[in-house]
Amino acid sequence: MESLPEAVLIRILASIPAADLVLVCRLVCCQWKNLVDGAALWILKCQQEGLTGEESQENAENWQNFYFLSKRKRNLIKNPCGEEDLQYWGEVENGGDGWKIEELPGDFGKEFPSEDVHKYFVTSYEWCRKSQVIDLRAEGYWEELMDTTQPKVVVKDWYAGRSDAGCLYELCVKLLSENEDVLAEYKSETIAIPQDNDADWTEVSPQPFNHYP
């Protein structure tokens, strides 16, 4: 292995799972450590797995971090559309007749912009609330990554009213420390949808949480 050209060794290392590169291969010798810590190996892994593009060219100051963050870029909300009723949702408050799950488009509603969504949560005539806590460490974001890279946490939600009934909507998002101290918070205004509306779906997305005090 010592006689192999560096370019060949990088291609061999690129075939190894990323976690093994960091936790095992990096400890073999100084040469392997430098290769694992360098950009060339991770650029190749990104290319092999289709993770390169305009975004990578603009934002990948550290290609290793970019690789791991790209692999973890997914919706962390469990059961976001009610396919499993209210499973994974806590602090459920059932005002009026309580929460229900309906098939799209539902009564007096419209189809969702994405064909992948088939169900949705329905509230009642009094406030209905629910919440979900996401443990970033349990989802594979290790402490050093959160402390140094501080990956952006992007939050999105969609709401709509029945065409024959008005409603109110609120969204609250909190970024918590390990001790559950609030590091950052977003709370929308109370959005009022009038009666006899168009039943259009509207996306709400606050600015990403990308600063951890």
UniProtKB/TrEMBL annotation:
Domain called F-box: residue spans: 1-45
- Tell me any Pfam family this protein matches: F-box-like
**What GO CC terms are in its UniProt record?**
cytoplasm; SCF ubiquitin ligase complex
* Superkingdom of the source species: Eukaryota
In the record, biological process GO terms are: ERAD pathway; glycoprotein catabolic process; SCF-dependent proteasomal ubiquitin-dependent protein catabolic process
Spell out the SUPFAM superfamilies in the cross-references.
F-box domain, Galactose-binding domain-like
Residue ranges occupied by any FBA domain in the UniProt entry: 66-213
CDD domains attached here? F-box_FBXO2
Supply the alphabetized keyword list: Ubl conjugation pathway
Instruction: Show the InterPro entries listed in the entry.
Output: F-box-assoc_dom, F-box-like_dom_sf, F-box_dom, F-box_only, Galactose-bd-like_sf
GO molecular-function term, one example from the UniProt record: ubiquitin protein ligase activity
Record SMART domains: FBA
Q: What is this protein called?
A: F-box only protein 2 isoform X2
Organism of provenance: Apteryx mantelli
Report which gene this protein is encoded by.
FBXO2
